[in-house]
Amino acid sequence: MKELICITCPRGCHLRVDDNLNVTGNFCPRGEAYAKAELTHPVRMVTSTVAIASISESRLPVKTKEPVPKEFIFPVMEEIRKTVVKAPIKIGDVVIENVCNSGVDVIATKDIEK
Amino acid sequence: MINRKLVIIGGGSAGMAAAIKAYELGERDILIIEKNAYLGGILNQCIHNGFGLHEFKEELTGPEFMTRFSKKVDELGISYALESNVLSISDDKVVTYSNAKDGLVEVKAEAIILTTGCYERNAGAIQIPGDRPSGIYTAGQAQLFANCYGYLVGKRVFILGSGDIGLIMARRMTLEGAKVLGVAELMPYSAGLNRNIVQCLKDYDIPLYLSHTVKKVIGESHLEKVVIAKVDEKMNFIEGTEQIFNCDCLLLSVGLLPNVDLFNKLPLSMSKTRGAKVNQAMETEIPGIFSAGNVLHVHDLVDYVVEEAREAAVGAISYLNGELKHEGHVYDVNPGVGINYVVPQKVFLDDVKDNLSFKFRVAKPMKDINILITEGNNIIKKIFKPAIVPSEMEIVHVSKDLFKRESNEIKVYVEEKK
Amino acid sequence: MFDVTVIGAGIVGSLIARKLSSYQLSVAVIEKEPDVGNVTTMANSAIVHSGYDPVPGTLKAELNVLGNKMMDQVCDELDVEMKRIGSLTVALYDEQLPLLEDLAKRSAQNGVPVQILSAEETLKLEPNLSKEVKGSLFAPTAGIVNPFTLSVHAIENAVDNGVKLFLEEKVVLINKNDDFYNIICESGNTYQTKIIINAAGIYSDEIHKMVEPIDYFLTPRKGEYFILDHYCDDLVKHTIFPLPSEKGKGILVTPSIGGTFLVGPSAEAMASKDDVSTDKFTLDEIKRQALMLVPSIPFNQVIRTFAGSRPTPNTHDFIIRYAKCDDHFITLSGIESPGLASSPAIAEYVVNEFVSRVIKLIPNPNFNPRVKARPHLKEMSVEERNKFIAENPDYGKIICNCEKVSLGEILFEMNTSVPPKTIKAVKKRTRAGFGKCQGGFCQPLVTKIISEKFNIPLNEVMFQKRGSFVVRYDIKGEKK
Fold first, then answer.
1. Nearest CB neighbour to B100, from listed C305, C396, C459
2. Looking at this predicted complex, what is its ipTM?
């Protein structure tokens, strides 16, 4: 039996998962899915910022388009840190394609005009 | 002097949502006044995800969430003044603002919605004991420096307070290579959302010290050490529980306070939320002046902020149409046992269209309780809650028809099961 | 070689330097801090005491009363905010009423106008005082002043009139040659001067010891305070004192010139001069005592707590004299309260009674007593302000929302002869960051303004002194 707190929404249900991956304590189906995923294959969104060429002391916020496996968090951050983009940029523009071969792109989360 | 039907002070998510709603209700003469060079307010620096689950049924980052609103504002052609700071509001609704281009501008408004958000309790407000070195920041300040300027305020971090921004910054600074040594929380439970405890602390093995606070900050010029200690139920330090952390920054995430400066010179009373008292239309004691979002009471989700801002917009348009009569049966709304505050604080029942909503926070975490809403001796609504925590605002909707007009007090309270 | 070197740019040193600049002298001011007025001048009650309290016949009494009278002109010339709001010294018990009479007699001896008020009269002036009040001593000439701009503008005016200011120079050694001194600083720099004026405040004993053994000692006496936000309308209109005791003037409650309220100070004898830390125990005690005077103080409106250190001498009076070994070393020590109120008189006294006897004073024909006038936005009408902003757009852009400070006002200070280069220095001059958010919103902006104006990388902008960083690392985690 494992206990964990559901993080799919702010409700924070206290979930209990038995050895056969039966989930109890969830308020909605997302809780069950979360518990199963969290125990078999935990994933996280990574959000950060990248530098913008020619605009100093200003950053472009970015995110992984999908959650990535937890062990990818720091390698993805390493790639993000090396990246410099050129304006203009639109929300959703791919900043790093298939980051760390995770199959997930890092995309812009803000429009930058100049 | 310029004339405007509706002036909205603050172009964050609340201000934009109110403006869009007012536009949708047919009002075209709207001006948003924003101090920054961009709309969106604090969401610009909240680059993490988790916004919009209610509003858009998807999980967005702060900039993505606010961009959806700012694009809509632009599409609709709603006018706004940027880099413009409101200096005063008079009781006859003259809003005076200042900017570099136009100087001092006086706008005579017919209705005003204040959506100026909140500010962070800081080292001064919590009377932090010890030296006065640099290296002590509010979590939001560290967030701005990291996410908008591209600078880290330190590399060995201690965090006081388990508010959400502090937790978010614990993760953010860890991702950027800083070592977060721990989070101390004065209360015996966390002030932040569960998922932030999991995603921001547990994921990175950052210890959370409940019932602990900072006893002393030490540093001649820059912060060198913080001493934390455990507190008893009366919040007094327990001798011998001191722990010393060598660190170069202390982030404070010890609560947010409504930014009500502009209301302070007006004859308005404040509620327990430290925002202005409002009626069911989010209207203050001065008819035609409304307040919504974090300046009214601090929310935990922006989704609820925009919802409340729309309520204020509906109220403002009703006011402009002469539909808010402030007559008939009136209730005072008071928090009862187990409740910290309730919004609104007054209800003019005849001005309610169909439903009334009550927003409140409980005083402490509780399990298996009933929330009761009463009118005098009548129980109007009773809701069972398996678990309830102060960090999450509750909303209860009540149909207007349920009220019997027999008393002048509505009470919201908690009934604990024996 | 300087004619005169002043050690210490607190309020006293600054006003002495300004006075000296009205003569044809070459004058230096050496200050260990990165800004002027950074120690005792920065952390006190900001009161212009009327002078009823010091023992008649003491230097304190004489200079306090005179300094109080001079304050209007000094503040006018230096463009410093000052208001004579009057003080009430309050008796809470019947047994204290004779003490009010004693103080009234002392006031007469010191030449200070006062009036004894009944309980009713007192409560009429200050309705929020404890209903227990039995009577009070009203001193109408007492006032409040901006101690930050007073010291900054004094030194700026001195520099504009030719004085040389050297910041971040800590004196470590003083050598006497035949007819001049070598002042050696920690930096390795040496300043040669004919006359030294020791205005080093809480460190004045240490400076004095560099030339001769001393026969007095200073005890650093720490005072902790609360600052309440300026929305506690009409809490009190006058400075409210309890009856003085041996430890000092007691816990006072007063409006400050910025509209906030000060509650304090404690009076703790300290082992270290540098200890200006606060602690909960002391603050709780201040709270308790203050609530006896004014029961309705809204302590939930506290925006900051701070402490300052006062140099209390065992002689119970200001020490102003030549060194025993040499009349070219003039020492000022034990300038505790009412040092701020006395400061203009101290400056005159030092120059007229001591400097004039050892060097010839020829008036400086180019001396201008007025500091560069600041634009006062809040005093302008809408039309005036609009006209002004049209010509100077930076004054339209507000940087500090709590205190409504514009970019123009900050840049003005940066273009003076004593420009602020730290966050704290900007704060002292303009009030940016003084409000309820304590710089939460404006500090990042001010950091950027300093960085751009003085071409310093953002992570080298200091909070208040060397080593006190605002932002330390660029996001790569490396120092830039």
1. C396
2. 0.93
* Contact status, residue C141 vs residue C50, Cβ threshold 8 Å: yes
Spacing of C-alpha C61 from chain mean position: 19
Instruction: Specify the pLDDT at position A75.
Output: 97
Can you tell me the distance from the alpha carbon of B156 to that of B181, in angstroms, rounded to the nearest whole number?
A: 7
Predicted confidence (pLDDT) per residue in A54-93, tens digit: 777 789 999 999 999 999 999 999 999 999 999 899 999 9
C338: preceding bond cis by omega (within 30 degrees) = yes
- Name the CA dihedral angle for B257, B169, C424, C38, rounded to a multiple of 10 degrees: 100
Q: Which residue of C has its CA nearest to B137?
A: C440
How does residue C480 score in pLDDT terms, banded at 50, 70 and 90? very low
Contact B135, B220 (CB under 8 A): no
DSSP character string of C371-416 = PPPPP-GGGS-HHHHHHHHHH-GGGTSEEETTTTEEHHHHHHHHTS
**By residue range, what is the domain housing residue B30?**
1-120+256-324
Structurally, chain A folds into a number of domains equal to 2
- Decide if B221 and C279 are in contact by the 8 Å CB cutoff: no
Domain boundaries, chain C: 1-83+144-217+314-373, 84-143+219-311, 377-460
Residues of C131-143 as b/e, b for ≥16 C-beta within 10 angstroms? eebbbbbbbebbb
In this structure, are B249 and B261 located in the same domain? no
Domain C1-83+144-217+314-373 of CATH type 3.50.50.60: yes
Neighbors of chain C by Cβ distance (3+ pairs < 8 Å): A, B
Q: Which ranges of B35-163 does DSSP label H, i.e. alpha helix?
A: 62-76, 139-144
Q: Which two tokens stand for residue A14?
A: 């206290």
Two structure tokens written together for C299? 């302590």
> pTM to 2 decimals?
0.94
